[in-house]
Amino acid sequence: MAQLFVGPIMTKIINTCFDYLEDQVRWQRGMKKELERLRENHPKIEAVVDYASSQEQITEKNSSLNDWLWQLRDAIDEADDVLDDLQYMKLKKQLSKNKKQRKVRSIMKFINKRVFKIVNRALKIDPNLKRLEEVVQKLDRVSAGVATFLHLVKDAKQEHQEQQLELYRARETGSLPKNDLIGRGKEKEFIDEVMLVSALQHQL
């Protein structure tokens, strides 16, 4: 789970979705809002994932955080798969377009294809759009849960600041922080007695 690289993947997903949806009629509606929410939640998600990956014992104890991280990972993997499919379709279209451009076509075919493409977009027949919409909605739902875990990041930052302040104060009064030895009190007393007896025997 610590190897989940949310930053670059989320950025890729958001940017690719924005690029793909620019020519879609549906762009004017819901998906733009969902992508904007993803863009807003992106830094928060990154902060929670970074915190969780640096505090592995916390994720093991906090099952809700662990569940959320797995849901996020699944949603990101699914979205990444759809983006790979979109990239493949784009390259496939480009290849067929290049082949067709080599052939001499009539102006009527060109006009028919353009009209067909515009009608398809107007009617939202694009099969990739439906899959893209589903994964963006899933990612949006999962990313909305990041607010639940932001307090962990804030608490960790506050704790770190307090530790830094304590260390700074300790350095003001002495060159090294005070080290308290815990445990082994009986052994220490025994060694002190042995050394005392040994010192007394040498004096006699």
Automatic annotation (TrEMBL):
GO terms for molecular function: nucleotide binding. Residues 10-101 form the Disease resistance N-terminal domain. Pfam families: Rx_N. GO terms for biological process: defense response. It comes from the Eukaryota. InterPro entries: Rx_N. Keywords: Leucine-rich repeat, Nucleotide-binding, Plant defense, Repeat. Belongs to the disease resistance NB-LRR family. PANTHER family: OS10G0133166 PROTEIN, OS10G0134700 PROTEIN-RELATED. This is Disease resistance N-terminal domain-containing protein. It comes from Dendrobium thyrsiflorum.
